[in-house]
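Researcher: Structure prediction, please.
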Amino acid sequence: MQALDHHEGAAPGNRFYTVLRLSLDHPAEDSAALAARVTALMGRPFRADAFRKQLSRARRLFAELLVREVVQTLEEPTPEQIEAELIDVGLMPFVRPFLPADWRSRGRLTDPE
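Model: Predicted structure follows.
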């Protein structure tokens, strides 16, 4: 979450940390209510559809950041070792939805930017 917070601070207009944190803190609220919370925090309008889009992107980046953290704990990481470690530490449920079909051959979730 710290890396996501740092990313938000470095990217103007990005609210990845904020939307993910709010969705975790208020799981029973819909996107309209959560967008209203962002509006209150930012002091300017934030629409429900923008909240949903930012949340989708935040989840993907969060998964990528989790994989990066795990990679740093392994001496010579392979996709198989990374997956095993994600399973062992209980993080695979957060990452699995973002693993592309060619994950093992590519060894990463997304294309480098």
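Model: The mean pLDDT is 89.
Researcher: Thanks, that helps.
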